[in-house]
Design the sequence.
């Protein structure tokens, strides 16, 4: 359920025709789940929706970029922008803007290989880059370092237990009987794209069952338990990023295209139905 300014919003009765299908799906799921999504203002909700849409787009772009799956020992990167450490981490080189280095992963994906946790963090960084002020991004993440689930504290990822999976969330599939000789297949992180599809680095964009089926091919002999989707959910702390939202876009003439999904809309209630006008 969604609460804005201490008032319950019934989005199941709302005409969402003015929003994209992706945004409508997120709102409808929020309204359906028993989990309470509470916001002080409509701006906070629309900002979260905008970032979630960018997470979805970043996941799809990373999949299409040509990046490869690799273990930490076989990771690679474009050393024009990154230093590859002995343990397989990517450390931003001096005098390189974080924005430039993150964008290069998506532009020159074939120069990169990393495991699935790093892929998830990269997706989150890319989504934030597309939403907040670029100068602020470069200041916040000036010491960019990509390795496993390590990330800058300003990215502020939060994990919790639940089953209220929303597009833009990161979830985890565990493979309890994985082959001990291939620890990289002990589980798979994935970005929820919609109610049916997930992006799992090294597997691709596919369904929940397909991810489970692939993990089940990576088990030890005589396994007892199937891989399964856990109730672990990782999300950005969307509200912490709101102060960095740009007021204007790069040409300084028009409102940033992702800064508001509802800015020209009025919430109107007529009888039992709510409308976006």
Sequence:
């Amino acid at each position: 359920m969604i609460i804005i300014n201490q008032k319950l919003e019934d989005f199941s009765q709302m005409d969402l025709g003015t929003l994209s299908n992706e945004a409508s799906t997120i709102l409808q799921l929020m309204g359906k789940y028993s989990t309470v999504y509470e916001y002080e203002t409509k701006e906070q909700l629309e900002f979260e929706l905008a970032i979630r849409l960018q997470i979805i787009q970043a996941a799809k772009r990373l999949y299409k970029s040509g990046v490869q799956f690799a273990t930490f020992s076989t990771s690679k990167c474009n050393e024009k922008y990154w230093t590859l450490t002995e343990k397989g981490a990517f450390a931003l080189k001096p005098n390189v803007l974080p924005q430039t280095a993150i964008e290069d992963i998506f532009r020159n994906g074939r120069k990169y290989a990393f495991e699935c946790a790093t892929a998830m963090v990269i997706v989150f960084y890319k989504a934030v880059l597309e939403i907040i002020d670029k100068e602020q991004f470069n200041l916040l993440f000036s010491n960019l370092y990509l390795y496993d689930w390590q990330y800058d504290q300003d990215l502020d990822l939060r994990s919790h237990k639940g089953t209220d999976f929303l597009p833009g969330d990161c979830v985890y599939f565990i493979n309890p009987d994985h082959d001990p000789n291939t620890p990289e297949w002990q589980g798979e992180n994935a970005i929820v794209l919609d109610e049916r599809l997930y992006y799992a680095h090294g597997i691709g964009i596919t369904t929940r069952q397909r991810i489970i089926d692939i993990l089940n091919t990576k088990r030890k002999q005589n396994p007892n338990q199937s891989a399964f989707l856990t109730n672990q959910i990782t999300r950005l702390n969307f509200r912490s990023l709101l102060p960095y939202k740009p007021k204007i876009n790069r040409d300084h003439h028009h409102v940033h295209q992702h800064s508001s999904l509802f800015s020209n809309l009025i919430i109107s209630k007529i009888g039992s139905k709510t409308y976006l006008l």
About this structure: The chain has a mean pLDDT of 88. The longest helix spans residues 42-64. The two ends are 21 Å apart (CA to CA).
